[in-house]
Amino acid sequence: MKYWVIVASKDHVKTGIQNGIAQACHGKAAPLKRMKPNDFVVFYSGKLYFGKPDKCQEFTAIGQVANEEIYQFQMTEDFCPFRRNIDFIESKSVSILPLIGNLQFIQNKKSWGYPFRFGFFEINEHDFQLISSKMLA
User: Fold this and answer.
1) Contact (Cβ atoms closer than 8 angstroms) between residue 119 and residue 86
2) CB neighbours of residue 122 within 10 Å
3) Any residues with CB less than 8 A from the CB of 55 and at least 6 apart, and which?
4) Average pLDDT of the chain?
């Protein structure tokens, strides 16, 4: 079992929860192919709304990869992103700020936002347990 972080604005995460899906890296298939059924995924939202400056800086959802299927969905005439089904777990949003010092994937605590620039990455079990313990409390 692996643990992943997907970076998306909070409004996009809410839409994902409503539809039971994840998209990553602006609809690319490659990140979703790295995930396997029953892997866990945590969503981090640096922003409240896509394309707007309002900060969020929270882990906003947590779920488990539901199955093997990766599929495309026609959202608009010129945007057909890849998606993956996620079984979301009821949770609360949690600020990253008090967790930074204990998260192992953040090596440079002063530039803690750097790992999120990639949009999708794997974390270790320690970090997943720390984040999920706060979100599921």
Assistant:
1) no
2) 14
3) 46, 47, 48
4) 96
Angle, alpha carbons 114-88-59 (nearest 5°):
25
**Using CA atoms, how far apart are residues 55 and 76, in angstroms rounded to an integer?**
27
Q: What is the DSSP string of 68-123?
A: EEEEE---BTTB--EEEEEEEE----EESGGGGGG-TT---STTTTGGGGGSEEEE
The CATH superfamily assigned to 3-135 is ph1033 like domains (3.10.590.10)
User: Which tens digits make up the pLDDT trace of 8-23?
Assistant: 999 999 999 999 999 9
* Torsion sign, CA atoms 117, 115, 4, 34: positive
- Per domain, the residue ranges of the chain are 3-135
In the numeric block, the tokens 């803690």 are attached to 112
